[in-house]
C-alpha cells in the first residue's frame, strides 16, 4: 500500500514513516509544505494519505480537496485540541491527535480502508 505523508514536523514525520514501513507500506514523502503537497496530491498515486492540518502556518485543506476528488482516503493529524474542528466536507473523516502512537495510526488506517471497501467516502471519528 502506498501512503502519502504530508507532515512538516521532521521527528513526527520520521516516526510516522517508521510506523508505516513496519506495517509494510511504501511511503510517499514526507512532504512538508503546502505547495509541495498540492503538487503531490495532484500527481502521486497513493492508496491513502495522512495529512497534518497545519503546514508551516498554512492549512492543508486545499491539498485534501484534491485528494478527496481523486478518491484517495484521508486521515488528518493535528497537535491542536479538538476545538479545531475539520471544515466541511471533512468533518466525518478520521483525525489523529498528536502525539499519537503506532497503534492509533494502524487503527485509523484500518477504519479508513474498511470504510473504503464498504464504499463509504467518509470514515467517521
TrEMBL record:
Gene3D superfamilies: 3.40.50.2300
Residues modified to 4-aspartylphosphate: 52
Superkingdom to which the source organism belongs: Bacteria
Keyword match Repressor: no
Entry coiled-coil feature ranges: none
Keywords attached to this entry: Phosphoprotein
UniProt-recorded name of the protein: Regulatory protein
Native species: Lutibaculum baratangense AMV1
Organism phylogeny: Bacteria, Pseudomonadati, Pseudomonadota, Alphaproteobacteria, Hyphomicrobiales
Amino acid at each position: 500500500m502506498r501512503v502519502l505523508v504530508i507532515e512538516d514536523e521532521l521527528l513526527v514525520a520520521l516516526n510516522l514513516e517508521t510506523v508505516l514501513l513496519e506495517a509494510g507500506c511504501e511511503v510517499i514523502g514526507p512532504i512538508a509544505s503546502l505547495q509541495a503537497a498540492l503538487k503531490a496530491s495532484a500527481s502521486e498515486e497513493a492508496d491513502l494519505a495522512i495529512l497534518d492540518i497545519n503546514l508551516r502556518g498554512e492549512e492543508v485543506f486545499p491539498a485534501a480537496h484534491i485528494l478527496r476528488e481523486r478518491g484517495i482516503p484521508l486521515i488528518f493529524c493535528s497537535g491542536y485540541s479538538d476545538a479545531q474542528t475539520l471544515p466541511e466536507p471533512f468533518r466525518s473523516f478520521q483525525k489523529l491527535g498528536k502525539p499519537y502512537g503506532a497503534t492509533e495510526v494502524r487503527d485509523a488506517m484500518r477504519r479508513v480502508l474498511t470504510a473504503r471497501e464498504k464504499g463509504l467516502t467518509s470514515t467517521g471519528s
